Amino acid sequence: MDYQAPPRIPMSSPDLTESERQAVLSVLQTPNLSMGPQIRAFEEAFRRFTGSRHALAVNSGTAGLHLCVLACGVGAGDRVLTTPFSFVASTNALLYERAVPVFVDVDPVTGNMDVEQTAQAAQDLQAGGAAAQRWLPRTGAEAPGALKSLLAVDVFGQPADYDALRGISARHGLSLIEDSCEALGAEYKGRPAGTLGDCGVFAFYPNKQITTGEGGLVITDDERMSTLMQALRNQGRAPGDTWLEHTYLGYNYRLDELSAALGAAQMARIDELLTSRQQVADWYAERLAEIPGVEAPVLIPSTTRVSWFVYVIRLARGADRAALAERLGARGVPVRPYFSPIHLQPYMMERFGYRRGDFPVTEDLGERGLALPFSGKMSEEQVDAVCRTLASCL
Predict the structure, then answer these.
(1) Mean local confidence (pLDDT), 44-58
(2) Which residues form the active site (predicted)?
(3) Which residue from 55, 90, 287, 359 lies 20 to 30 Å from 394 (Cα-Cα)?
């Protein structure tokens, strides 16, 4: 019998219902399209969900990361420990302030920052001299600078090792920024992702756990940081400033009321949305276990709850990923490489002199990772079709 290709399966689909559509339409019945009650409702939903004292909605996760960098006092020439295995926004937020990202390779199981290397890098950078030089990029960090902060990323919805990272930060007097843009609803040893650093950031692109179309949100328990970030997101208007007064150099990082209404409606369904994504991930894990040459994601004990953002498998070393992706696409199954290492992006190689081989674990994961179609809207039949097609193409 000839192979019958399944109907094309979307790479991702937002999970929207009539409640979300009505929430957005209701805003259009009011004169408040910006800086209104929906923003406050959305932020309150996050304070309840995470237990944080402060929540600030912004127009993207990247904007949220930039605000955190500013609130932590990171400036020109400062060094920040971070990961090369992430979406570029986590590094770009540092470059906006002319800081120097100091990369540390990642754990081969989780893809999160290797805490032993992070501890050694922090110690060496504080010591200076030849010890520090081994961690710095070849170019772009010639001027002396202070180690100022640590920016960790919760890769693919699994939190980094924050007990270790907080210990490193405390020993060296560093602020700790948690990029949880992929990890809404995850837990580290029973504690919510986003609450594990001095500030945390979420993002709401359509493939995320909840969506506002575009948008992001920062949480923190720090009153000073919250007050500063609220001013900076609104063109630098500090408390007490009138409409055309600006205490700080700020940004237009506000989230609009339509997006906030969508986000508040999604947060009312957050448990349902996370459960749906977990079910799809469970279907994948069961079926992929029977396919040789494929590694499914591995969860570690400190992850007491994972929050599935994407579903990234790893192929065997030496597999022709590009050819496999082409075969899958031809049969109606779209896939994507995940992630392309940040240090090998053209602008990073040109600016900092990075080369292939600098971060071998990151490069290995980047070369073997393949994101399968994934969303909470997928049916068991669709997961079956993806896995059958994958096995056939392999």
Answers:
(1) 98
(2) 208 (proton acceptor)
(3) 359
Q: How confident is the model at residue 1 (pLDDT cuts 50, 70, 90)?
A: very low
Same fold flag, 18-267 and 270-393: no
Kindly indicate whether the domain formed by 270-393 is annotated with CATH number 3.40.50.720: no
Residue 77 vs residues 62, 146, 250: alpha-carbon distances, Å: 20, 7, 21
Structure tokens at 62: 């990247």
* Residue-level pLDDT at 8: 85
Tell me the CA distances in angstroms from 301 to 114, 123, 286, one per residue in order: 16, 27, 19
Q: How confident is the model at residue 209 (pLDDT cuts 50, 70, 90)?
A: very high
Q: What is the pLDDT of residue 6?
A: 54
- Domain spans of the chain, in order of start: 18-267, 270-393
CATH fold for domain 18-267: Aspartate Aminotransferase; domain 2 (3.40.640)
Q: How many CB atoms lie within 10 A of CB 264?
A: 24
Torsion angles phi and psi, residue 263, rounded to 5 = -65, -40
Q: For residue 129, which amino acid is it?
A: G
